[in-house]
Each structure stands twice: as structure tokens, then as C-alpha cells.
Fold these 2 entries.
Entry 1:
Amino acid sequence: MNRFVWPLIAVMALLVFLVMGLRHGDPRALPSPFIGKPAPQFELPTLKNPEVTIGTNKMAGNFALVNVWATWCVMCRAEHPFLLELAANKAIPIYGINWRDSRLEAIRWLEDLGDPYLASAYDEDGRVGIDWGVYGAPETFLVDPDGTVVYKHLGPLDPVVWQREFVSRMSGGGQTE
Amino acid sequence: MIPEIGQFALILALALAVCQTIIPLVGAHRGDAAMMAVGRTAATGHFLFVAVSFACLTYAFLVSDFSVLYVANHSQLALPTLYKVSAVWGAHEGSLLLWILILAAWTLAVARFSSGLPVAFAARVIGVLGFLSIGFLLFALLTSNPFDRLVPAPADGGDLNPLLQDPGLAIHPPLLYVGYVGFSVAFAFAIAAMISGDLDQKWARWTRPWTTVAWMFLTLGIALGSWWAYYELGWGGWWFWDAVENASFMPWLIGTALIHSLAVTEKRGLFKSWTLLLAITAFSLSLLGTFLVRSGIIVSVHAFATDPTRGFFILSFLAIVVIGALVLYAWRAPALDSDVGFSPLSRETFLLLNNVLLVVATALVLIGTLAPLVVEMMSGGKISIGPPWFNVAFLVPMLPLVILLGMGMHTAWRTQNADAWWRVLRIPAIAAIVLGVIIPLLFYGRVSLMLVVGCGAAAWIVISALIQPVRSLLRQKGTAGITRSALGMSVAHLGMGLFVIGVTIVSAFGVESDQALQPGESIEVAGFEFHLVGLSNVQGPNFSAIEAEIEIRDDGKLVDTIRPQKRQYLVQKSWMTEAGIRAGLDKDLFVALGDQLGQNSWSVRIQYKPLIRFIWLGALVMAIGGLIAISDRRYRAGSRAAEAPA
């Protein structure tokens, strides 16, 4: 074998390694350390009425979505129609965390676009967002009837992700109960 | 409508790139002149359509067309116009389009300035470049279309990442890409030469100016990125050994090796197969860099939005290009054994050492960049290999490199008489050692072994770089002066010397100090008094900021008043630090505003950075050296009469 083949062999090895690196995991799947653990407790004023509070205890007993959103978030607008669809089909109770936003603008957004949420918590300074390990909006958490975080999705929710990641986990979770 | 035109133009450009690849390559194989001539025409059309597409995307940004998803995500109504334009390449999709545009522009330049090359050779070069364009156009159209729509369109966009809202960073990616992509030309020349099998030293001469231009832009692009990191990230460092920085630095190192090895191949017909391998490697590392940055395989502070399908696409393309090139290489290179020898003391030896050391340096950077990935795959643990490892490992090849550099410049080709060599070098050598002791001692009052080595090496490079130009100035009228090519080399090496002294001094004598400061208070850092006069609120177009007014005094005398800011960008709600810098050739005084600590107290980071400007000045001078070298007459003469004496 001639020595000029060595660069080829070295590069092949590097490429195999890089393929393995890519397959090693979906780099987008930033695992949330909260998965499999109880959802972080919170108690926040609701968006529409500062006098009333909403918190983790209200969600117990059912599967629930916790959707982190804000009016400044473009992708939240993109996923909004799908959330409305889920709400209209009564697929699952959806709770919102309105994250680092202006209350007035957020209320106007819901009036203009429709409100898929049973209630939205108003997390003005992002403190609850920190507890929940939020990287950026939109993020959607699936919480099971025991209040355990089952799944977290980063980025806008769409029918494909919903079917693949959420629906399967809800039925699976139901059978083991 | 306009975005659809942009997308359609991109598809047409792909069709033309296919013509530009297949027809000239087949034509060159068959010796069909008409088919070969198609290459130039197709390359021109390809460029025009990519330019139209790029213009459409720019237009979408200028008119804030938020129905385009990419625009909605990376722009905003209140964004200043300059940043609306630079936002075009502010994220993955648009920067890929910029990459495609620059590749098309390089191809067009090759097509225009290749009239002196043999027709079949030029046709093959254009064909190979067309093949690379196909890969990137498919990548854009299939995985990263910048023209995707967003329905319904939002009223306002998500804003450009505030880190990128800076004039330096607006022009950093274009410069960097011109360099990165420019290595595709050297790659295409190497492939064309290997396909034809005509591998005498002519291809090296044709390749040299193109490689030097690409290298120049890469040098400027990297230096600009480093400068931006220094003042915008607010940390005051100038190089972080971040994976993305390394991705641009590896092609630079190999490109530097390639420039030197091309010189040997052109002048002496040696290192032929080695030069081919470097030409392939330089561009392959550019592709690898693209892969690392855009696949998300490595988590980095400035990684692009990541997507595994993109990663697989680039990796497949990388595999096709590199494996194809190396198979060709394994087939052709064995015929390239040269029978010319050289003595141990000759310029060839020094350039060989230069190449070996630069390749070792590149390998170290590559290992350091990929090591965290290896560890993660083996054990699942996350490690980071930071500056401490790189700073030490990188010195191992670099220190001998800078010392050999000064010797190599004054060594003759073929063989060098040792006595004559010593007569030229002994005075610079002694002067360098003396200066290595004097500079730190006299100006900074402290000396250590590393300082003597660093300053001495810098002085050594500067002096030996200046010998030839100075002699040429002092020469008798009528005798031959220095050639542009040799002058370019001297200037580039001078730049290297300036860089080394900057790095040495700033790492030895730089001072960083984190302090808490209240209005009216003063603190002393590195002999300067920093007095916080007060804080005020400032409003920008798309941010609001807190601005501190800080007076710097030296012995009670006011040196300057600087105004560091802490900005909150209104859309993304993120905080950015705008450092206040009193810049000078001899030193920078740098103040970055940190967090509010208490009622009226602020954390500030104060830094004293002696000679830090020499780092970027050195890079600029290196690039100017490249510019002088390509202005050498023989490249222009060479393009008309291929056999002009070297």
C-alpha cells in the first residue's frame, strides 16, 4: 500500500467519528433536569386578574401542558393557532406562563388572537422561569396527573411534535397508572 | 413576491451550477473547446442569479417583511438600517446564502482572470468550483431556505441578537467567509491539476496569488473577530479558544503552511505531493469548520441555531468532497517523487520545518476542539478544554516556529554557506537577546525567562524581517532592489513580530480587577486612578442603557473620560455590556460596567492592557504583507506568458 493512502484513512476515521458524534444525540434535545421530577412549585398572580393566583396545585389530577410564552416572542405567535386548536378540541388543559412580558400587551395579545389557556400566570421578572429552567420562549412542559414533568419541548409546538412526543407519553403514562 | 423571486433565482443558480460543473469537465475530458467555454458563461450566470437572490433577501430585511420567517426571527422595525443589512448574515440561513454568494464571486473572479491558463485546466477549475456550489445551494434549498414564509406575519420581529449589533461584527463574517471560501480556489486548482495529471510546478504559481488573497482576508476576518470579542463581550480577552474560533483558526494555520509550501513547489519543484495535500486540507478544514459550527455537534457560545439534519447534510457533503479529493490524491501523488535534493542548511529545510510545525499546531487545535466530544461519547461526561491547555500546548510548536522564521528568511535555496549565514545573523541574534532583556525591564520594570523568550523572539523576527528591506533602501543606485514578493514576505513577518510582542506583553503585564464602586468614589488600578463621576440613563434606538461616567487620572492629571454602558435591548430583554475603552498604541484602559450590587454601588471590571493593539496591528500588517506579495509583477506577467521566469 502506498503512503499516500494514509490521509484518506485518517479522514475516514475522523468522518466515522463525526457521524457517531452526530448520532450520539439530537443536539436540540436539551434535556431538562426536571424530567421525571415533580414540577417546580409556584404561586403567581394570573395575567388577567392580579388579585387571583394560580399555581402548580391547580393542575393536579390531569395531564396538563404548561406553555411559556411572551408577546415579544415571534415563534409563540407561530405556535399560537395550534394551541387554540388543542384547546378547542379539549385535548388537554393548557396553562400559560406569560414570561418577562408587559401585562397590558399580553392581555391585548390574547384578546386579538384568542386565548387557549385555562389561565396564564404572570411571571414578570422571570423568577418562575428560572425555577423551571426556561431557556427561551416558547417552551412547553407536559406534566402528568401526579404533578411530575414528563416531557419538555423547546420551540414552537406543532401537530407532528404533538403526536410524536406528547400523545404517546400521555397514553403510556395512563396505562401504567 | 420578492422573496419568491429570491428563491426562484436560487433554484436557477443551482441549475446553472450543474451546467458549470458537468459541461466543462466533460469538455476538458474530450478536448471539446465549445463545451469548455460554457464554464465561464455558466459561472457568470450562476453569480448573477445568486446575487439577485441575495439582493431579494436584503430587500426583505430593509422593508421589514416579517412574512419571511428568517426576517421575522432576526430583525425588528426599530433596528438601525446598518444592522438590518448585516442581519442578512446574522444567522444560519442568511450566512449560508452569503457563503454561496462569495463562492460564486470567487468563481467569477477565477473565470475572468484565468485567460492565461491552459483552456482545459481553467475549465476543470471552474467545473470543480461549480461542484462545490451545487453542494451549498442544495444545502440551502433543502435544509435552510432563508425565504420560508411565516403565516400570519407578526407585527414586529424578534430582533437581531444584540451581540451582533455592532459595526465590527457587521463586516466580520463577510471578511472571514471571503477567506474561508477562498481556499476553495486553491482546492479547485489542486483537483484540476490532479485530474489532468499535469503536476509540474506551474499549477503552484497559478495557485499562489489566489491562496495569498484568501489568506489575507482570513487573517483580517479573524483579527476583526478577536477585536470584537475584546470590546463587545465585555471580558477584555482577545482569544478564547472557543470551538468556533478554532474552526476559523485551523484553516488559517494550514493556509499559512500552504503559502510557504507553494513557494517551495513553485521555485524548486519540491514538496509537490505535500503541497497538494495542504491545498486539500485547507479547504477541508473550512468545510469541517462549517460542520462544527452549524451542526450543533459542539456547544459553543456562538454556535448557530442547530439542527441534526443540517449536520448530516454537511457531513455527507464533506465526506464526498474530501474522500473524492484524497482518492484522487492517493492515485496521482505516487508519481510525484522528485529527484532534486537540497542540503540540510537551505531554505527548503526551514520551510519544511515551518510546515511540520504549523501542521502540528493545527493538529493540537483540532484535538483540543474535538476532545470534549470524544470524552462525551466515551463516558457521557462533559469536559471543557479551555485556554489553559491551549495556551501551553500551542506554544510548543509556535516557539520554535518564530525562532526558525528569522533564520529561514536569510537562508538561500538549495544550499547555504554556513559562515556567510552566521555573519548575517549574528548581530540580529545578539540584538534580539539584548532587547529581550531590555524591553520588559526598561518599560515594565520586571523580567522573567518567558518574557525574555517572548520579547527576544519578537525582536528577532522584527530585526530579521527588516534586514532585506533596509538593505534595499540603502543600496547603490542601479543595483537590483528587493522584489515585491520578498518585500511582502518581510512585511508579513514583521506583522508576526508585532503580534508576538503584543501577546507577550499583554499576557505578562495586563491587569484585571473587579471592584465595587459608588458614584464619587475612586480606585487605583495599574497606577491609574478611576473615578466614577455618576450614572445616567441613555436611550438608544432599540435599547435603553445605564451609562457610567468615569474619569481616568494619571498622577492627578485627567487622561480621559470614558462612558461604559450596560444596555438592555428592548425586544429580547437581554443585557449587553458596552465597555468603555481608552485605546492607545502603548496601552488600553478598559472599564466594563457589571451588575448593580446595592443601593448605589456597581461592580466594575477595570483592565490595563499594555500593547494589546499590537495583536491586531500585527494581523493587519501581515495582511498588508500579503497584499504587497500579490502585487509582484511575475503573477501578472505569469498569467499572460505562462513561462515567465520565476
Entry 2:
Amino acid sequence: MPRGGARFVISFLALPVLIYLLFVIGPYAQAFYLSLTDWHGVTSNPQFIGTDNFVRLVKDPTFWTAVGHHALLVLVLPLATLAIALFFAFLLNMGSGTKGVWGSRFYQAVFFFPQVLAVAVVGVLFQAVYRPDQGGILNGLLGSVGIAPIGWLTQPNLALWSVIAVMVWQAVGFYVVLFAAGMSSIPKEIVEAAELDGCSRAGMFFRVTLPLLWDTVQVAWVYLGIAAFDGFALVAVLSVNRGGPDNATTVLPLEIWRTAFTFSKYGYASAMGVALFVLSLAFAVLTLRVTRRERIDYA
Amino acid sequence: MSAALPQKPTRRDVLRGLGIVALTVTPLSACAFGSSDSPSSSGPTGAVTPENPFGVAADAPLEVVIFKGGLGDEYATGLHEPMYKKEFPNAAIKHVPTQQIAQTLQPRFAGGDVPDVVANSGTDLMDTGVLQDAGQLLELTKLFDAPPIGGSGKLRDTLLPGTVESGLVGGKPYVLNYIFTAYGLWYDAELFKAKGWQPATTLEELDALLGKIKAAGLQPYAYPGKNAAYYQYWMILISAAKIAGNQVLLDIDNLKDGAWTAPAVKQAAEAWAAIGKKYLDPSFEGLTHTEVQTAQNQGRVGLYPCGSWLENEQKDQTPATFKYAVAATPSISASDKLPYGSIRAAAGEGYIVPAKAKNAPGGLEYLRIMLSREGARGFTEKTGNLTVVKGAADGLPLSPGNKSAAEAQAKAGDSGIITYSLFENWYKELETELRSQTNALMFGRITGEQFCANMQRKADAVKADPAVPKQNRAS
């Protein structure tokens, strides 16, 4: 580095780092501190109570219900989204050899539409889709073939799946585009060589495309896994009683929000936040470890 | 193409990260709480005179936070604030409308920079029990003991009975509940007249009535399970009080052991569960109040449990032929302690003055203006809702729904008033659980007995939770 280079770099980095410390690391640190207090949110002197909040948390059945839902989400959301997105991306890019199926550029744009909508908009949209009486889009269609309305969001054993379906629907578009970009960077020679050797379409996908796309899939898995620890907005808009029926759809961010803003237990809510932080972090580290493979360089 | 995620943070990276966290904890930990020194509670004051009983400084600015929901905020900007301005022409008024009281004000309470009057309403209202416990609320005894504007005696004597009591927190008045509300089963009087249906006075009659409505092709009974299950739990609580008297509801508020497993609560829950099983379509668990109320306006729903704000809330959707009327909930048995006509009528929509308000005397004066004859009458004209000020709306042409509510209250008399439930604001965790259990009960997932047991379990948990400030009421 030339003389004065370090000072130059530092002077550029100082502001962003400071802002990051103040607005990202700061609140995190504060949440960790708050989780050890009994803060009610309206006083200026939270009392330090040690790990009481965490002891409570371990015994809280609602907390464990929410964690259970995240466990399901973390499995289903990435699997379903990746499977659908890979399938579509493959058809769009390599559906007919080195080209996509007819009209693939149009489809690619259409698949991306849900990603452009705000989550709240998606929620309101699906309120109409899932409406439990004949006025609902799904139930209206079912009604036209003589099937009685289904309580998509009111049946406790169906409600969470209905919410997951919306999350998948919303996520697929982005990953189609991501994988499409990845696939277009796979060298044509490899694909053509495989075709000359008589590789079937399925063989092409599993033996050529997927291995060469592994890095992207891995990143997608982590992103989707982290998304699986959220779900707040959709559950809050769509579910009965925010997280119901009978807590069947509740998620940790929703419980944190309710505990803080409705129950005025900011300390306890922060403890939930810390638990959520640990869970998402553990998931990200674990995924990166488990899925690590040799990287292939084309160059 | 390489996805750039750090594959392997070195140990040094991690340690460095931890070091930064440790360094930042101390200086930042004070941020969310603001300064801990509490400013003086009253701010500048003027001379105390009979016209200015709280000693408001004539030029002190006033900040008013209004919940802009079903009532709008025109009653403040177009009526009460101009009245204040007329009294104190030099005072600057800052008007803050919001739909999210807690999100807007919680950080301000924590930081000590609070407004002078707050309409604490809506889904996201602030927990007054917690606020009072933290010393954030101004006691309103001074307000209720002050003379009414343009009158003599005490302000409290100009209000409907129970108004002051409904705002007690920790045994003292901290909340002014401003709007008079009657609760019951709402229906279209014109439709009922056309079909020859009569409101039911007993459970058997209700069963027969709902049967007739169902036969006519309507949904006989409905409540919005998605976001307003409390409309239904009010009916269950009212029925419990009819069976065994208001003491049942006082016991519930006081977290008395076994309050939820009392025979009256169980009997009421079972009676309503039977109605739910027979007449409540499962789709209503997933519909909102707007959707169900619109369906009623379209003549597709018979009886709807609600409070008297309903008519005003629906005024843009209600067809001209639709005339709202309210009926008391039916008697559960012949041995009921309270007669059929008894209804729950209570003061609602709370207004508070923060203890650390910069112009607390101004806040009190603002509430006194709201409670003046002119302020209350104007409020009824602007919003269609009756206030707790006795006779303020006399002579005003009342809407059919308000007229029906006033008649129901007159019929019930003073002894037939079913008390409000304070646990709804005191213990939000219990209230949240009750919404969930009410849906489970009404849509047939649990029995009345399970309902009582589940609620009792939650009430016991709240009682045992040292983090929840406890409240008490004697009447």
C-alpha cells in the first residue's frame, strides 16, 4: 500500500462503519442488554434481573410452538422454493438444449412479479384468495365444481400450510432469476459435450446443471432459511387472531411484537429476540458447513 | 459466478467482532431509555381562578394526540381544539393524529418527551396499567372535582354513573372514558318488522328465532373471528353476569381463584357454544368485522354482537332501508339473577394526561372542555356517538341505533346495568388468550368446560407473574 493509503482508506470507511455500529450493532447490543432486564418500555430505569427472562422462555409453551413452526418452515420453505425455482429456471434456460423453452423471457418477467410486490400487498391479495366463504377466489372456484368452502386459514391443521404456500409463491420468482443467471454462466461447451454423449434432460439437470450451480443453491438455501425465521408480515395480515387459530400459525417475530407492544414486556420480548438471533445464526453457520463442497472454476 | 459469502470467519475476525460489541454496549445502552432525570410534571402554570381551576399558563403550547379511527379526528381539530384556542388565544396547539398509539408514544414515554393529552384507543392502545405503574399517568381526581365549564358544583356529578369508576387504575381515576356505549345483539329493525321476527328474551326463543332466520336463507348469527373475537366474549361475559350477577365479572377482573371456573361462566360458555354449533358458519372465524358488518348491511346476517359505535362505523355502507336496533342478550335460565332487559352499558374510549406532560394543566383543561355541555354536544353532532355527559345530547335528533341504545338503557334502569370488564386493559395477556379460546369454543374445537379450565390456567399464570402489575376493583 502506498504511503498515506491506510489513512485514505480509513477516512472513507469511518463514516459507514460508524453508522453501522450505531444503527445495526448498537441495537443488537442493546437488545442483548434489555433481555436481562424487566423493562416495561415506559420508564427510563430498567431493572437488571439476570437470566430470569430466559428461564421463563424455556418454560413458555407459546415460544416452543413458534419454534416448532420455524423448524417446519426451515425445512419446507427452502425445499419447495428451490425445487420449483430450479425446475422453472432449467426450463427457461436449458429447456431445449442450450436454449430455453419458447417465450422464456416473458415467463421470466412474469415469475418475478410477486417479488416486486410489498409483503403487505401480497398479504392483502391472499386474504382475497383464501377468504373462507364463497366470496374467496379459491373457494369460489371450488364452489363452481360443487365443493363446499374450505377454511384455508381457519382450520388449525391447514392454516400454517396456507401461509407457507404464500411464502413459496412470493419467493420463487427471485430464485428463478437468480438460478437463470447462474445457468447462463455455465459454459456452453460442457452442455454441448453432454448432449453429444446422449445425456437425457434429467441427466443434464442432475449431473451438469445442479453441480455447476451448487454455490448459488447454497446461497439461496441460506437466504430462504433466514426468511423462514421471519414470516411476521404474512402471518400478521393473514392469520386468525394474529397467529391463530389456537396459535397454529404463530412465529417468533410475531410473538416478540405482541410481547413488546401489546403486553408491554420489552425485556422478555428482547429475550425472545436474542433466541431468534441465535437460532438464525446457528442455522446459517450449520448450512454453510454442511453444504460446503469443492468449488469449480471454469477459467 | 461465485456467491460471496464468508466461508470461514477466522478466530481473529470473531474475536474482533465480539470486542466491538463489548465496546459499544456501554455507551449505547442508554439510548432507548432517554435521560433518566424526570422533568417537572406540571411545567409553567398560571394563576388558579374559578374559570381556570388547574392554573393553565395562557401561552403554554398544548400537544394533543388523537387516535384517528372510526371517530376521525375532526371532533378535535374542528371543535375541542378551537374551544381551547378561544380560551387561551396565545397557546399554540400541536395536533398529532395517528392510528398507532403505542408505536407512536411508547418511545416518547420512555424518553420523557410526552404530549399533553392522548386519546388512548384502537387495537394498538397503550397499557394503562403499565403506564400507571411506571408513574406515567396524571391522576384525574382534580379534573372530576373541578367545576364544569359554565356551571358550579363538581364535574363528576354531570357525568353518567360509572364513568369515573370505569377509569380507575390502582383504585384512583387515571383514564377519562368519554363515549357512552351500549352492548348487545344488533339487527336490522326494518328487516325484522318485515319478516315478523321478534328479539329473543330467553335461550329457547333465541334458538327458535335463529332457526327462523336460517330458514329464510340468512346467516342467523355471526361475529368476526379473525380480528374481533372480543365482540363474542363480551356476550359470554354478559350472559355469565346475567346468571349470577356482576360479582362474576368483578371476580374475573380481580383474578380471584376459580373466577373462570365458576358455574355461571361455564353455563354461559356452554349456552353460547351450543348457539355456535347450531347456527355459526365456520367461515366467520376467518372474516374481519368490516366483512361481516357489510354482509349484515346487505341483509345476509341476522344477529350481530357489537357495541353502539357500530351504526356510525357503518354509516357509509348502510342502505337507507336498514335501521339499526339493539336487543339485550337473552336470559339463560329462569333463575337468572339479573332480568332479561339488563344490558352492558359503559363508558369507553379512554383519554389520558401523561404525568410528565409539559403542559399538564392544559391537558386537564382540554379534558374539561371535552366534558363541557358544548364540547360533548358538538362531539355527538360530529361523530354520531353519545358521550358520558348527562343530557348533553338532549333534543338532538338521534339516529335509529342510538335511539334504540338509549331506550335499552332506560329499560334496564340503574339496577340492570351489567358492568364493564377492566381485565381487557389491565391484563392484555389474559385478553389475548380469551380471544383465542372464544374462537375455539364458538367454532366447536373445545367444550365450555375446557374453555373455563384454559382461561383459569391463563388467569393463574398472570396472577403468578411478578412482571404484571396487579389491579383491583371493588365495584
